[in-house]
Amino acid sequence: MMLEQMNGENSDADVYEKLDTRLNVEKPYSEASGKVNRILAACNESKDLETLASLATSTGGLVDDEVRRKAWPILLGCNTKNTARTSSTQVWTDLPRHKDEDQVRLDVDRSFIYYPKHESQRQLDRRKGELSAVITEVLRTYPALSYFQGYHDIVQVFLLVLGIDDAPRAIAHLSLLRIRDFMLPSLSPSLAHLHLLPAILQAVDPKLNRHLSQTQPFFALAATLTLYAHDIQEYGDIARLFDFLLAHGAIVSIYFFAVIVLSRREELFEIPATEPEMLHSVLSKLPKPLDLEAFISRTMSIFQEHRPEGLPFRAWANISPYSVLKTTRSIDQQQNLEAGMVLFHKQVVR
């Protein structure tokens, strides 16, 4: 899959023109182009979010980066028709430094390790400069946000898909409306996500959950905190997973990890329950290969069968009403950045 950066809005004709070289080779041209047609229609005709989410979830997701460039901002609820970026750039560069910029610099230096492939050092340095600019713009514009290590893993995927012009607005929406819990001053809201994992496992497989009962669910932190971008090394895989995650509420990420755990059932039972360190070590690494389509399908099945409100241990009741787990439940009720900041401050004082 090419990682070409596009400038400005792509027309539908631009998208179709690139299909011959950008389609998933595992699908016939007619099948993939037909799906692209349906996705573009959902993007263009009154922003049919329900259809778009369904297509993003279906096998192959949003097919191609050109299509994602249109669909991801819509799923996030942001308008990508930016005014001239040169004028806005001067504004954020004049803002005070964010307290976490030193850590941003260290993490950016370690970015673009696995993808894009076959680029020169000069090209990679340019990408790192753009990555630093996107992250810093968002943090300076919303200084209350706290940077976390692994944030750059998420942002680099958006940068590759959307380009330097559209990535900052999308990342602002993602940060305030989808991963806000991870950018609060305290780690506690992030850990609250993890405590849903035993409840999901108990609902689906009580025996396995008992086997893991001496192992705290912190093994899922790195993967869920970074929307799996820290652990998945293939660009095509993480872009496809983002199709799915952006099409649903934030909670599906936890259900997705539960499916990963369930897929390793036999392996986990071979390790004694009295060895939580060993279980933690195994569970903290994603299995390879990662059967994304099968995992996504099972995630949706389990989510439908075991809704959050019915999970045991009163797990759902213990989640803050201001958490993204509860404020992103309906894709049709998209919020704006101002609402995200209000919820952020409510979480801080709760």
From the structure above, extract its key features.
mainly alpha; disordered N terminus; 350 residues; globular; 20 helices
Could you explain how this protein is built, in words?
The protein has 350 residues and is an all-alpha fold. It is 59% helix and 0% strand. The termini are far apart.
Cα gyration radius (Å): 20 Å
- Which spans of ≥5 residues are poorly predicted at pLDDT below 50? 1-9, 16-26, 80-88
Distance between the termini: 45 Å
Series of secondary-structure elements, N-terminal to C-terminal: HHHHHHHHHHHHHHHHHHHH
User: How would you name the oligomeric state of the polypeptide chains in this document?
Assistant: single chain
What proportion strand? under 5%
Largest sheet: none
Principal-axes geometry comes out as globular
Helix/sheet category: mainly alpha
| Range of helix content | 55-70%
- Could you tell me the number of beta strands? 0
**Mean pLDDT over the full residue set:** 90
Secondary structure tally, helices:
20
